[in-house]
Design brief:
Radius of gyration: 14 Å
Strand order of the largest sheet: 1-2
Number of strands: 2
């Protein structure tokens, strides 16, 4: 199993919040999780997400899991990593 920090899952929470005119604080209140935990998810640093939390986020944003999360192709992640190198 690959190390946890080498995932290619991309979180689209920023885009969804913008499209719905909602703040992270408002979403946290609707979902019942802390702003800090949502921020960790939004920034792609979450190690896991409970299905119940995912369901609550999707209900609050009126979206599906595939709208919130996607998996980058391996070559896209490689290109991103190379751009960041000096």
């Amino acid at each position: 199993m690959p190390p946890e920090d080498e995932h290619r899952v991309v979180v689209h929470l920023d885009r969804l919040l913008t499209e719905r005119g909602m703040t992270l604080t408002e979403l946290a209140g609707r979902v019942g999780v802390t702003v800090v935990n949502l921020s960790i998810l939004k920034n792609g640093r979450a190690r896991a997400i409970r299905f119940s939390t995912l369901t609550a986020i999707c209900e609050a944003l009126q979206c599906g899991p595939g709208d919130l999360l996607s998996c980058e192709r391996p070559d896209a992640a490689d290109r991103r990593d190379h751009r960041a190198a000096p």
